[in-house]
From TrEMBL, chains A, B, C, D:
Family, similarity comment: Belongs to the xylose isomerase family.
InterPro entries on file: Xyl_isomerase-like_sf, Xylose_isom_bac, Xylose_isomerase
Subunit and interaction comment: Homotetramer.
Name under which the protein is recorded: Xylose isomerase
Residues reported to bind Mg(2+) 1: 232, 268, 296, 339
A cellular-component GO term for this protein: cytoplasm
C-alpha cells in the first residue's frame, strides 16, 4: 500500500524554537507532568469521521476535498484504503488512540446482513492495523442517525423496527469495540429528540431511550467489556431538541433509569456552548456529579449557532478545562478525542496535520499550565477558606440533617444574626489564572 | 382609605364587540369550558412585586413610576397603603389570586427581629384584606436574593449564617403562606448559582441546596401545609449560572435528594426561553416528568438576552402551552401568575390595568382554542397512530425489559429488517393547529 | 409527460369551513382587500430549490426524499422532468410566480461552456412552460456559492478568475431572467464573507463586491431590464460572517458605492432573526431607508441558531410584517417567495402541498388582519399624536437645520425647561393589535 | 483631604516575577514597543462611572458597595469627595487618562439651571485635579439616558423639549471636555432606539438623530475643539433595539448625514459580542471603513445576554484586537478606556485596583504579542500572497471599472476558465497566532 501523506514524516517534539510546521513545539509525549507522562494524561485520539470521512461539504455546498482515499469500488477495498490512510496518519501524528463510528469504517451496504458482514470484515482489518501500528481504540460507536431510517430517531423512533435496527448496530459496534480493546463505548443520540412537539410523546420516547440504555449496560456486563459506557450530550442539531441536552439533563435521566453508576458523559466543548454553558462548566458539573468520562476536544465559533467542530486553539479555555479534569482525578478510561474538522476551505492534505498539531500543542500547553495551577493550588486554598464557615459545628449539623428549618430560624433570631457579604474576589482569581498561564 | 385607581371600576366581561378598554372581551370567568369555569381553569394571579413594588428602574436608569403608594413613613403604614392599593387592584381586576415575596409586602427593616415583626404584622393585615375582598393567595415566597447579604447566594452561600438567615425568611414566609391559605409555596433560587467557577465548589453548594430543600419539605409536613412546594427554574441572571437551570435539571436535582415526589416546578415562559427552550417544551417536559406545578405567565423578547417579563400577548404560543397543561390534567394547586411588568415607559396607572387585561384575554382565548384542540383531539389521534407499532408484541416486550440487546439484534438480522422512514407530517400538524386557532 | 402529483388536483379556495386538506380556507386570490386582489397584494412565489432540488439532507444525514423527478440521465432530460413536475406543482397550487437559481434549473455540467449551453436550453424550456401555464417569474438568481470553486467567495474571492466565473453566471442568469420576464433579479452573497479574519482583507473584498454590484447595475441598464435588483441580507451561515449582514449594513454598503437608488433588499424572515432582529424590524428598517424590495417568506426556529427555512405559520408575526409592507406602499415588483422547505421528516409528496397551502393561508389571514389595521389605523393615529410636538415651530426649525446646538441649549436654559416622560402605552398598543387579529 | 486607598501605594512595574498583587508584571509604561512607549500605545483610561459611581446594584438587588465617597450632603462637596478619591485612584494606578459622563461628576440637581451650575463648578474642580495630578481626559460625554425624562430617548424622543434638554447637556459636556483638554467627545445613544415598533416612527427618529449629530459636529468646529467626535455602537439594552447597532450600521448612518469624515466609533468589546460580532470583527470593520476612533476595553460573558462589562482578561482575544488596531495605524486621539466594573460580589476597595491591574497587564501582554506579530508579519505576507491574483492586469482593470459584466463573461467563456479552490489555511494561521502568543 502506498504512502498517502508522503510529504509528512513522523511528527516529533522539537521544542518551542522549532520552525518545523510539522513538529510539536509543546507536546512531548514522554515528559512527566504531575507524575504521569503527557501522553498518559492527555490520551489523545484522532476521529475517523472528521478526518477521513467528511468530504468538506456543508449545507450550502458539496465536498471540496479530493482525498486519495475517496475512491469508488467494492466496499471492503475502499474501506481498507481509507483505513491504511488513517493508520498512516495516526502513526505519523504519534497519537496513541483513534475513535470511530461503525459506518465511518466501511459502507453499511444495502441490507442488515451486508452491514454485519462488512463491519465484521473491517473489524478484522482494524485489528490487524492496530497490531501493526500500536495505535489503540479510545472508543467505538454506532452511527444511528444518518441513514434515512433514523430520520425520526433511533431508540426513540415511533417504529420499533428502527429501534431494533439501531440495537443491531450498537450490538455489533460494542462487539467490535470490545474485540479491538476499546477503552470506552460512546452513544451520541443525534436524532434522539424532536423536530416538533406536535407529533412527539416525550414520556414514551424517554421510556424507550431509558430501556435502550439499560440494554446497552446489561450487554456490556454480559460481554465482559471493561470499558466505560459514555453518553455524549448535545442540546440540538440536527434535531430541534435533543434529549441528552447537557450533563445535568443526562444525570437526571440516568438517575431515573438507575444508570448513574454505569454510564458517564463524553463532553464536547462545542456542544457545551450550544447548550448555553461554558466548556469548563460542563466539565465541572460532570465532575461534581461523578459522571465525567471523556472529552471531545474542539471548539465552536462564539458567533455561530451551530456545531462548527473547529480545532481547539485557546490555551486559556483549555487550561481551565484541564484544571477541572485534573482536579476530578484526571482521565481513567477517557481521553481527549479530536472531534474537530479542518475548515471546508482547508482543502490540502497537510491541513489535516496542521489542525491536529496545533491543537495537540494547545492541549500540551494547557496541561502544563493546569499542572502549575495544581502544584501550588492557590485557587483551592482560597476556595477552602471561602467555605471554611461550613466546617464549624453549625454548618456540619445542618449538612448532616440534624437541624430543622425551625431550629435554624430560632437560632438565627435568638442570636440576632446579621451576616454581611464578603468579597468574592473574582478579579483577583482571574489575575491568578492569567499569571499561571502567562508567567 | 382612599381609592387609588379611581378612574377604573370593576373590570367585567363585555364580549368581543366591546370598545371599553377596561373590559374583558374574552375572559368570562363563569363560562364553562371542558367542564370547568374559565376562572377554575386559569386560576389567575397578580404579582405583588411586579405591579406594586418595581419602580420602573432598569440597569441604566432609576424609577420612572410615580405611584400614590410609593411613600415615605413608618414601614407598617407604608406597607398598608401599598396593600390597600394592591387589593383594590386585585378586586377591580376580578382575579381570584395574588402572589408575594415577604419583602414585597413590607420592608425587612434593619434587623432579623424587625423583619419577623414587620412581616407578622402585615400578615395579619393581608389576612384581613383577603377576608374583605375574597382574593386568595396562589403562593407566597421569600426574597433571599436582593439584600446584599445574599450577593453570593442564600442556601448555597459560603457563609452558613447567610444560609440561616435565608432559612429564617423561608420559615416565616411558609408560615405566613400557610396561615393565609396559600395554595403553593415557591422557591426561586435567584442567586443560587455562581459568577465564576474560580471561587465555587459545585459539589458543596449542591449539598447545601439539597439539604435546604429537604428542610423545607420536612417543615411543610410538620406545619401541615397542604399546598405544593415549587421550585422556579431559571438558567441565569442575576447569576452567570443558576443551579435550577431548567425543568430537566431540577428533576435530576430532585431525584438526587429524594424530593421528586415532594417538589414540583413553577415554569416561567421567559426563563424557558433564556434556557434555550420553548415555553411549550418546558411545560411538556415537566408534565412528562410528573413535576408540573404552576406557571409564571409572561414572555421575553426574542431578541433580548435578559428577563424582560413582558405581559404574554401571543395567543399562538399560549394555546400550545395551555394545550400541554390541559393534557397534563390541568392545574391542581397551581395557576397562571402574571410575573409580568409593564414597560418602563408605561408609566401611567392605567397601564397596569391594560397590561393585565390584555394578558388575561390572551389566556382566555388560548384556553378556548386549546379546549377545542382537546374536544376533537386530532393531534393525539395522529400521535397514537404514529407510535402504534409499539403496542405490538415486540414493542411491549422491549419496554417490559424482556428483550436483551442481543435478542433484538438477532431478531433483526434473522428477519432481515429494512424499516423505512415515514413522514412526520409536521406541516400538516401545524396547519391543524392554525385551524384550531383561526377557525 | 406524466402527472407527478396525481393525487392532488387544483388547489382552490373553499372557505374556512372546508375540511379539504388541499384547499385554501383563507386565500381567495380574487378577493379584493384595500382595493387590490389578494393575489395582487401577495404576489406569491414557489421556490425551485427548496421544493424541487433539496433532497432532504442535512449536516448529519443524506437525502430522505424519493422524488419521481430525481433521476439519472442526461442533464437536459432530467432538468425537463424536474421542470414539468415544478410547473405542475405551481399550477395546481395556483400561485402566480416562481423563483430559481440557475443551477436549480439544470446541472451546470463540467465546463463553463456546458453551463452556458445547458442553461440556455433550459431557459427556452422554462419560457415554454411559462407560456403553457401562465406562471411567471418573480425573480431569478445565480448560485455562486455551492460549487467548490466558490468556497472562498464569488465576487470577494481572492482569485479574480472566480470573480469572473461568478460574473459569467450572473450575466447569464440576468439574461435569462430578463428574457423570462422576471420581475426582479436577486443576489445572495452566500459566501461573500469570511471564515477567519486571519486570511481576510476586508477593505479589498468590499471594493471587489462594490465593483461587482456596480457592474450588475450597469448591465441591467444596458440590458433594458426593468425589474429591480435585490440583495438578500444574511448575517452568517455558511460563512462565519457575511458582508450583507442585515438591511442597515446593506444600506451603508449601497451608499458607499452610489447604489442606494439602484438596489433594494430581499428580506428573509429567518435571516432577520439570525441577525438578531425581528422580521418586522428588518422590514420597517428597509421601508424607512427606502430599500424594501421583496420578501422571502419563511420562519426560523427561535431555539436553533441556523437557517431552518420553515414555512411561516404565525399569523401574529406575519400580520405585523404585512402591516409594515402595506404602510410602505405594498409590493411593486416584489412579492412573497416561499424560501421554505418541508422538514426532512416530511418525506411525502403531499407534504410539499400542505406546507405551501398552510403558509399561503397564513399570509392571507395576515393580509386581512393588516388591512383591518390600516382601514382604521389606530396605531398611526396614536403615533402621529405621540410625535405631534415636532410639528411645532421649534421642532420644525430644529429639523430644518435652523438651530445650532448652542441656540437650543440657550433656549432650554432660559426657559428652564423640565420635560417629563409620558407613557409609551406599549401594552395598550399590543392589546389593539390583538384585537385586530382576534376580533 | 484624606487618602481613601490608604493601603495601596503607587502601582509600579515590577516584572513577571513579582509577587506583589499591586504591581504591574507586564505593563511597563516607558518600555518602547514598535517605536512608541507602551503608555503612548495604550493610552489607558479609567472610567468614572464604573469605578466611582456604580454602587454594586443589579436588576435583582441594590448596591453592595460601601464606598467612603458615597456620602450624603450638598452636591458639590459630595462630588468633590468623589473626585478626590477618583484622582487618588488614577494617580496610584499610573494611568494617563480618565473618562466621565457629566452626571457621574456631580448630581444634576433639580433643574436645568442647577445642572449647568453644578457641572460648571465641578469642571473647575476637575481642571484643578488634572493640573495637580497630571491625569488627562480621554473623553467626556453626557448621560442623556438615565433620567426619567429620557425614557423614550434623547435626540430621538417624541418630545422636542427632551431633545432640547439633551442638547443642553451635550453642549455643556462638550464645553467642559474642550476646556479640560479632552482628546475626544463620545456619544452613546443608550435610549436612542425603541421598545416597540408599534409606537415608533423609524424614519422620523432617524432624521432627529441625524440632525442632532450634525449639530454636534457644527458645534465642535465652532468651539474649535480638536478632538474626535465618537459614537459608541451598541445593539440593545436598555432598549430592545438601539439605532447605533454596530460599526457597519453607524457607517451607513454617517454616510446618510454626510458625517463619515467627522465622526468615528468608540468600540466596546461587550457591545460587539451583543451585536453578534467578535470584538476583532468590529475593530477590523471600523478600520476598513476608516472610522475607528477609540476602544472601550472590557469583555462580556459568552453565556449571558446582557452587558456584563467585565475587565478584559483574555490575552488571546486582546492580542487579535490590538493587532487590528496597530495595523490600522494605532490610536491617534483614542485609547483603551476601561468600561469595566468589578463584579457585584467584589465589594472591597482593593478589588477596584486588582481589576484594573489585571486588565492593564492583559493589554500590555497583548500589545507585546501583537507587536511581535507585526515585526515579522507572517499573516500580512500570507494575505498578500492570497490576493496576489488581483494585482494582475485583469484584476486591476476590474477594480478600476474598466470591465463590464459582459466583458468579463465573454473573457471567461472564451478562455474556458475553470478556477479551482485553494486552501484558505485557517488552521495554519491559527497555529501561527498561537506561536506569537505562546512562544
Amino acid at each position: 500500500m502506498a504512502e498517502v501523506f508522503a510529504n509528512v514524516g513522523k511528527v516529533r517534539f522539537e521544542g518551542p524554537q522549532s520552525d518545523n510546521l510539522f513538529a510539536f513545539r509543546h507536546y512531548n509525549p514522554d515528559e512527566v507532568v504531575l507524575g504521569k507522562t503527557m501522553a498518559e494524561h492527555l490520551r489523545l485520539a484522532v476521529c475517523y469521521w472528521h478526518t477521513f470521512c467528511w468530504p468538506g461539504s456543508d449545507v450550502f455546498g458539496p465536498g471540496v476535498f479530493e482525498r486519495p482515499w475517496f475512491k469508488s469500488g467494492d466496499a471492503i477495498s475502499v474501506a481498507k484504503g481509507k483505513a491504511d490512510a488513517a493508520f498512516e496518519f495516526f502513526s505519523k501524528l504519534s497519537v496513541p488512540f483513534y475513535t470511530f463510528h461503525d459506518c465511518d469504517v466501511v459502507s453499511e451496504g444495502h441490507s442488515i446482513g451486508e452491514y454485519v458482514e462488512n463491519f465484521a470484515r473491517m473489524t478484522d482489518y482494524l485489528e490487524q492495523k492496530q497490531a501493526e501500528t500500536g495505535v489503540k481504540l479510545l472508543w467505538g460507536t454506532a452511527n444511528v442517525f444518518s441513514n434515512p431510517r433514523y430520520a425520526a430517531g433511533a431508540a426513540t423512533n415511533p417504529n420499533p423496527e428502527v429501534f431494533a435496527y439501531a440495537a443491531t448496530q450498537v450490538f455489533n459496534a460494542m462487539g467490535a469495540t470490545h474485540r479491538l480493546g476499546g477503552a470506552n463505548y460512546v452513544l451520541w443520540g443525534g436524532r434522539e429528540g424532536y423536530e416538533t412537539l406536535l407529533n412527539t410523546d416525550l414520556k414514551r420516547e424517554r421510556a424507550q431511550l431509558g430501556r435502550f440504555m439499560q440494554m446497552v449496560v446489561e450487554h456490556k456486563h454480559k460481554l465482559g467489556f471493561k470499558g466505560t459506557i459514555l453518553i455524549e450530550p448535545k442540546p440540538q442539531e440536527p434535531t430541534k431538541h435533543q434529549y441528552d441536552y447537557d450533563s445535568a439533563t443526562v444525570y437526571g435521566f440516568l438517575k431515573d433509569f438507575g444508570l448513574e453508576k454505569e454510564i458517564k458523559v463524553n463532553i464536547e466543548a462545542n456542544h457545551a456552548t450550544l447548550a448555553g454553558h461554558s466548556f469548563q462548566h460542563e466539565i465541572a458539573t460532570a465532575v461534581s456529579l461523578g459522571i465525567l468520562g471523556s472529552i471531545d476536544a474542539n471548539r465552536g465559533d462564539p458567533q455561530n449557532g451551530w456545531d462548527t467542530d473547529q480545532f481547539p486553539n485557546s490555551v486559556e479555555e483549555m487550561t481551565l478545562a484541564t484544571y477541572e479534569i485534573l482536579k476530578g482525578g484526571g482521565f481513567t478510561t477517557g481521553g481527549f478525542n479530536f472531534d474537530s474538522k479542518v475548515r471546508r476551505q482547508s482543502s490540502d492534505l497537510e491541513d489535516l496535520f496542521l489542525g491536529h498539531i496545533g491543537a495537540i500543542d494547545v492541549l500540551a500547553l494547557a496541561l502544563k499550565r493546569a499542572a502549575k495551577m495544581i502544584e501550588k493550588d492557590t485557587l483551592a486554598e482560597l476556595k477552602d477558606k471561602r467555605y471554611a464557615g461550613w466546617n464549624g459545628e453549625f454548618g456540619k449539623q445542618v449538612l448532616a440533617g440534624q437541624q430543622s428549618l425551625e431550629d435554624v430560624a430560632q437560632w438565627a433570631i435568638s442570636n440576632n444574626i446579621a451576616p454581611k457579604h464578603v468579597s468574592g474576589r473574582q478579579e483577583h482569581l482571574e489575575n491568578i489564572v492569567n499569571r499561571y498561564i502567562y508567567g
